[in-house]
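User: quick one, sequence for these C-alpha cells?
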C-alpha cells in the first residue's frame, strides 16, 4: 500500500489556536531558552548536562572530559530540531544565530571521515562502532539527521544538512549488504535516514534505513555475539550467557512481529520507520505488520491517557492488559513516538482509528510530561499517585509525584519541544485529489490546492470552521476527521457548507467526512457537536480498573487531585448515574481549562485497621481536572480511575 497523501511541511501551517498557541508560546518564550541554558550548564540546581560542552571539547575548542550519558549528543540534536520548528512558528533572528553557533561547533567536531559522536571522539576513539547494543552511536546519528532535515526545511541553510550527509555517507560506507551487518541497539537512525532521504533525494539513505529494519531479527543473537567479539561492556549489566532479545525487538524480523514487546520507545520508533518505509515503497506486507503491532498496542497495551510501556523493568511493554495505574511507566517519549507512528500510518491509510489515537496522545499522554510553567518535566506518567509511596518505595520509585527540573537522561524534555513546535505538520496530509484534516485545531494552512483558515474552540467546545481559498479551478475533496467519540446521530452534531446542511452518514468513510466540490473563494465548512462528559470503562481483563470508571470530555482525560477533593481518593465513589457540570477555571495555574464538578460520596470508617462495621457513606462534592495539568499545585494524591457505586 503506497501513501495516499503526504504529510505537509511544518512551515506550511501557522497554528492559531486557543489551546495549542499558548503551549507553543510557552515553548518558545520559556522552554527553549531554559533548555539552552541547561545544555550549557547555566541553570543551578538541576542535573548537569554538559551536552554542548562535549561538542566543544570534541571540536578542540575546550579542554576537559566527556560528561553525561553515552547518548548525550541527542539532547543537542533534539533541541536544534525544536528550534528549527520554532523559527517557522515565530521567526527570531537572535535564536537562529545562537543555533547557527551551535551548528558551527558541531561541524568542527565532526571527524574527517564523517564520524560524529562526542563520547567516542573524546573518551574512547579506538572503540568506535564496536558496541552498537549499548552505545547509541546510530541513535545519536539519527537525531542529528532529523535536526538537519528540519533546520534545512525551516531556514534553507544547509550546513547542518552537510554534516548529516557526511555522517550518513560514513554509515552507508560501513554497514549493509557485503559490509558489516550491524543493527542499532536503540532504533532511531531509520527515521533520520528516511527524513534525510526526502530532504536530499539520495536513495542510498532510504536503502540504508531498509537494511537496518530488515536486518533486525535475522540473527537474534547478533548483540550477544557482538559482546563476545569485543570483550567489553559499557553499562556492565549484561553478564548473562544470553541477552534479552525482545528488549530491543531483535527476536524476530519486522515482518514476523505481531506483539509490541520490549523497550517501548525503541519499539515505536522502529514501527514509525516501518510505516514510513511501507508507504514510500508500497510494501503491503510491511504495512500489514505495522497494523498488527498498532492493534496490539491500542487494543491491549495502552493506558486511557495514551501512555504505553507499563513496566519500569526495561521501560517496556508488559503482557496484554497488564496496566497498573500507580506503577505505570508510560514514558513521555513513548507517547510522543505514538504521535509519530500515527502520523505515518495516516499517510498510507487516512483512518480515524489512527487520528483518534494521535489526538488522544497530544491532549493527554504527551503534554502531561511538562509542567505548565515549562520548567519541570515528568519522564514517567502514572495514572495514580500517592506521595510517600510514589517516587519513594521500591517498585514505585520511578513514578514521581512532582516533576523534577531536569534529568541526567533528558530525552523527554527536548522531545516535547520538537513535537509541540512541529504540531502543524501533523494536522494535514495532502493527496492528488484530497486534502485530509486530521486535527481540529485553529490554524492557517498554505496547501497545494488551497489556503485554508481554521477557526476552532476545540478541545473545550465542539465548534470548528474551515474557510477555503482554492488555488485550483478543479474539483477536490476536503476530508475532515470527526473524532470517534462524536455521536453522528445526535441532533447537536451538524456540518454545513455555505449554510447548507450536509448529510453526515453518506459522506463518512473511516472516520473522515468527505466534502467534494469545486471550491470557490469564501466557501466555508462548519462543524458543531456536543461535548458531554463521558464515562469510560476498561475491559474486564484489566484487573486494576475492575469496578472503576474514568471521565473524558472531548479528547481530554480527567483526573481527581487531593488539592480539590481531600485525601484518601480511593475512599471516594462516583454515582452510577453521574451528572457532571463543566466549568471554566478562571484563576490560578489552571486558568483557561475546563474542569468538572459533580456529586459523589466518601466512605468513612472507624479507627481500627480492620473492623466488622461497614464504612459509612457521606455525600461529597467532587472536582476533576484535565489529566495533563495534574501536579501543578501543591503535592498530593491523584487518580484517573475512580471506584463507582
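Assistant:
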Amino acid at each position: 500500500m503506497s501513501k495516499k497523501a503526504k504529510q505537509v511541511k511544518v512551515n506550511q501551517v501557522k497554528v492559531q489556536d486557543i489551546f495549542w498557541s499558548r503551549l507553543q508560546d510557552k515553548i518558545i518564550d520559556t522552554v527553549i531558552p531554559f533548555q539552552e541554558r541547561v545544555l550549557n550548564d547555566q541553570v543551578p540546581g538541576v542535573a548537569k548536562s554538559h551536552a554542548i560542552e562535549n561538542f566543544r571539547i570534541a571540536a578542540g575548542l575546550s579542554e576537559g572530559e566527556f560528561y553525561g550519558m553515552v547518548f548525550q549528543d541527542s539532547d543537542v540534536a533534539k533541541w536544534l530540531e525544536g528550534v528549527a520548528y520554532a523559527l517557522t512558528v515565530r521567526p527570531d533572528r537572535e535564536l537562529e544565530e545562537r543555533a547557527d553557533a551551535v551548528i558551527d561547533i558541531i561541524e568542527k567536531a565532526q571527524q574527517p571521515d564523517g564520524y560524529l559522536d562526542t563520547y567516542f571522539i573524546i573518551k574512547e576513539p579506538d572503540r568506535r562502532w564496536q558496541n552498537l547494543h549499548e552505545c547509541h552511536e546510530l541513535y545519536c546519528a539519527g537525531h542529528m539527521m532529523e535536526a538537519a532535515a528540519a533546520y534545512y526545511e525551516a531556514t534553507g541553510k544547509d550546513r547542518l544538512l552537510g554534516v548529516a550527509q557526511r555522517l550518513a555517507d560514513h554509515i552507508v560506507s560501513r554497514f549493509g549488504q557485503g559490509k558489516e551487518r550491524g543493527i542499532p541497539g536503540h532504533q532511531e537512525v531509520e527515521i533520520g535516514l528516511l527524513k534525510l532521504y526526502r530532504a536530499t533525494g539520495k536513495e542510498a539513505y532510504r536503502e540504508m534505513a531498509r537494511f537496518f529494519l530488515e536486518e533486525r531479527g535475522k540473527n537474534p543473537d547478533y548483540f550477544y555475539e557482538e559482546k563476545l567479539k569485543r570483550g567489553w561492556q559499557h553499562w556492565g549489566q549484561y553478564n548473562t550467557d544470553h541477552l534479552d532479545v525482545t528488549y530491543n525487538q531483535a527476536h524476530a524480523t519486522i515482518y514476523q512481529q505481531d506483539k509490541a514487546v520490549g523497550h517501548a520507545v525503541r519499539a515505536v520508533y522502529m514501527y514509525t520507520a516501518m510505516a514510513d518505509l511501507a508507504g514510500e515503497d508500497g510494501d503491503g506486507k510491511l504495512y500489514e505488520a505495522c497494523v498488527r503491532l498498532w492493534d496490539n498496542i491500542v487494543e491491549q497495551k495502552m493506558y486511557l491517557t495514551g501512555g504505553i510501556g507499563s513496566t519500569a523493568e526495561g521501560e517496556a511493554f508488559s503482557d496484554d492488559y497488564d496496566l497498573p495505574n500507580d506503577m505505570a511507566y508510560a514514558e513521555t517519549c513513548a507517547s510522543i513516538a505514538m504521535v509519530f507512528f500515527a502520523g505515518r500510518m495516516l499517510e498510507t491509510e487516512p483512518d480515524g482509528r489512527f487520528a483518534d489515537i494521535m489526538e488522544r496522545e497530544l491532549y493527554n499522554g504527551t503534554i502531561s510530561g511538562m509542567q505548565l510553567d515549562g520548567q519541570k518535566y515528568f519522564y514517567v506518567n502514572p495514572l495514580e499517585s500517592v506521595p510517600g509511596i510514589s517516587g519513594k518505595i521500591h517498585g514505585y520509585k520511578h513514578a514521581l509525584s512532582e516533576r523534577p527540573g531536569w534529568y541526567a537522561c533528558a530525552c523527554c524534555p527536548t522531545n516535547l519541544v520538537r513535537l509541540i513546535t512541529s504540531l502543524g505538520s501533523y494536522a494535514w496530509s495532502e493527496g492528488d485529489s484530497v486534502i485530509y484534516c486530521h486535527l481540529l485545531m485553529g490554524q492557517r494552512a498554505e496547501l497545494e490546492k488551497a489556503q485554508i483558515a481554521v477557526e476552532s474552540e476545540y478541545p473545550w467546545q465542539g465548534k470548528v470552521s474551515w474557510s477555503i481559498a482554492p488555488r485550483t479551478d478543479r474539483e477536490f475533496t476536503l476530508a475532515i476527521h470527526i473524532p470517534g467519540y462524536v455521536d453522528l446521530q445526535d441532533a447537536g452534531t451538524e456540518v454545513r457548507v455555505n449554510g447548507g446542511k450536509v448529510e453526515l452518514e453518506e459522506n463518512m468513510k473511516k472516520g473522515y467526512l468527505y466534502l467534494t466540490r469545486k471550491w470557490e473563494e469564501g466557501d466555508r465548512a462548519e462543524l458543531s457537536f456536543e461535548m458531554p462528559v463521558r464515562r469510560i470503562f476498561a475491559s474486564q481483563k484489566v484487573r486494576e480498573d475492575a469496578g472503576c470508571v474514568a471521565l473524558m470530555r472531548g479528547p481530554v482525560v480527567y483526573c481527581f487531585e487531593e488539592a480539590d477533593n481531600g485525601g484518601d481518593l480511593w475512599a471516594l465513589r462516583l454515582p452510577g448515574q453521574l451528572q457532571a457540570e463543566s466549568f471554566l477555571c478562571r484563576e490560578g495555574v489552571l486558568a483557561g481549562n475546563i474542569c468538572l464538578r459533580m456529586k459523589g460520596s466518601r466512605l468513612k470508617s472507624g479507627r481500627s485497621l480492620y473492623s466488622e462495621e461497614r464504612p459509612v457513606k457521606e455525600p461529597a462534592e467532587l472536582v476533576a481536572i484535565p489529566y495533563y495539568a495534574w501536579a501543578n499545585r501543591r503535592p498530593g494524591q491523584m487518580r484517573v480511575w475512580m471506584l463507582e457505586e
